[in-house]
Amino acid sequence: MAEEQQLQVLMARQPVYTKSQDVVAFELLFRDSDGRFVEGLKDDEATLGVLLGTYSSIAKGGSVKALPCFLKVTDSFLLNNDLPELPKQSFVLELLGHSNVTPALIARVKDLARQGYRLALADYDPRDPKFEPLLNIVHVLKLDIQLLGLDNIPPLLQKLRPYQLELLADKVETQDEFRQCLEMGFALYMGYFLSKPEPVKGKKITGNKVVLLQVLTELQRPNATAQTIEQVALQDPALTYRILKVVNSAAFNLRREISSLSHAITLLGIDQIKRWVLLFLSAADKRKPDELTRNMLLRGRMCELLAEMMGRDEPINHFIVGLLSQLDVLLDMSMGDLMDQVPLQQDMKEALLERSHSYGELLMQVEYYERGEFDKLSRLLDRPFYEVAYRHSLNWSQQVLQAMQG
Predict the structure, then answer these.
(1) Which residues form the HDOD domain (predicted)?
(2) Which of 215, 234, 335, 340 has the most CB atoms lying inside 10 A of its own CB?
(3) pTM of the model
């Protein structure tokens, strides 16, 4: 963490999904000290470097690749600034609905399209004729499904068909809304629909997740030993192998190879093993997208880092709460049912159910940050520390996911 450079901007990213819930781009949520961002990009190479190096990268199938980022641009940025050298394949320039659509702006947008930039239009209002000239130029049209209303969208899509736009359904909040938009033929999706569980009544935790919970239970026992923990874990040899593989990966910077779980526990301590057991508990099955696991890892690590920065007790417990905060989504169970089956101390359970205690308070800070609700962040830390913790957690989650998939 010491080597992380502080930026004068708060920045989070929100995934843009395809129909199959793969991530194909990120939208950047940002705020500088004056409440702006993009104007400062022109003379801030550090921010641009971090943006391209960390915020646009994603681990997929054991390797890392860069995805394009949607960058919200203001009229003044487009008209009054020379665009910084933004790599065309790395950014989609997103025009805002409150743009003043003047002939000068239309000419500028046309010129950018000619130069090879991809362009998106947000906040589209079909009743306002000012957007008409832009529909012939932009490539992606974002439709806020909450604002427009799902019932009003089919006739609107008919009207938009001649423009041959790539349509992005924005503010998709539930799996049901996702399915409806899918049927309407949207190509891209944004929103928190992946963060909402669809609880299946009476569902129990099954498969290797049961073994993981048994290992977790053993880890919580005061008189547990390296040998007793290993014996429980060996009920699933493949799982033990995968845990050791991650332990030996670059994400943990060990100087020597660890060959058995008991060896790992002796060398690294029970808290670290607890971390890896939980990492595998959060690993998505084939029906859930990797992005969910990535976000669970990011939340866990950021909660832990904020706890360390604030001098809170037991940062590992903050990690656990952050990581498990979306286990209900991963397993399609209500958090209440899960807490009946997962062995955790009571204050951690209450943090997950009610966002109470120190654990719940820091989890809420992380949730605010990842949603770009920067005004809700507490003053417990200077603002730039939140961004450093988020960026470090992005990199860390990337490494761990790579090791888990590799």
Answers:
(1) 205-390
(2) 215
(3) 0.88
Amino acid letter, residue 168: L
- By residue count, the chain amounts to 406
**Which residue reads 């470097």 in tokens?**
49
In this structure, what token pair is assigned to residue 169?
């359904």
DSSP β-ladder status, 118-121 and 91-95? parallel
Q: Which residues pair with 57 in a beta bridge?
A: 66
Phi, psi of 209 (to 5 degrees): -65, -30
CA–CA separation, 192 and 92 (whole Å): 21
